[in-house]
Inverse folding.
């Protein structure tokens, strides 16, 4: 009888606004090995170079990236569709991925993607996302913020657990 070692879930990690995959990798690298050893984490840079100064300049080296752009008041979004194509292309070439981990802007995107996938407006060529890990996230829409048209009906399709320290 052959012993089978369970496969680690492969997780695509999406960094925050005006940071990078490398920065998120360094930040997540501080987690306990008991967590890190159970996940196959893949860190990706956003498709667009940052359009302004990063809050992390001086702490981490550039380059810095963004997933999409928006007006300062978050009422209009730009390059969102291009971001979705970029992510799906990366996932097709480097997947399959079991889940997503997102921080800040990457968390907003990670929270919307499974619902967009279920609606058939994003990630239609890759296997269904099974879980997400959201760190310092928010959601598109609400009474104050607009949302990209493709995310209009996005919802988080699972029960959730919330941890705080």
């Amino acid at each position: 009888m052959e012993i089978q070692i369970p496969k680690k879930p492969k997780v695509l990690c999406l960094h925050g606004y005006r940071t990078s995959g490398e920065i998120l990798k360094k930040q997540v690298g501080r987690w306990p090995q008991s967590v890190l050893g159970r996940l196959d984490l893949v860190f990706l840079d956003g498709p667009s170079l940052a359009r302004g100064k990063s809050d992390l300049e001086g702490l981490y080296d550039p380059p810095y990236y963004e997933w999409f752009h928006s007006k300062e008041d978050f009422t209009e979004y730009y390059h969102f569709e291009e971001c979705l194509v970029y992510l799906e292309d990366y996932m097709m070439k480097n997947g399959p991925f079991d889940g997503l981990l997102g921080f800040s802007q990457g968390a907003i995107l990670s929270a919307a993607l499974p619902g967009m996938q279920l609606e058939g407006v994003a990630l239609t060529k890759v296997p269904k996302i099974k879980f997400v890990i959201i760190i310092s996230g928010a959601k598109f829409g609400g009474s104050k913020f607009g949302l990209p048209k493709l995310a209009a009906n996005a919802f988080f399709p699972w029960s959730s657990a919330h941890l705080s320290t």
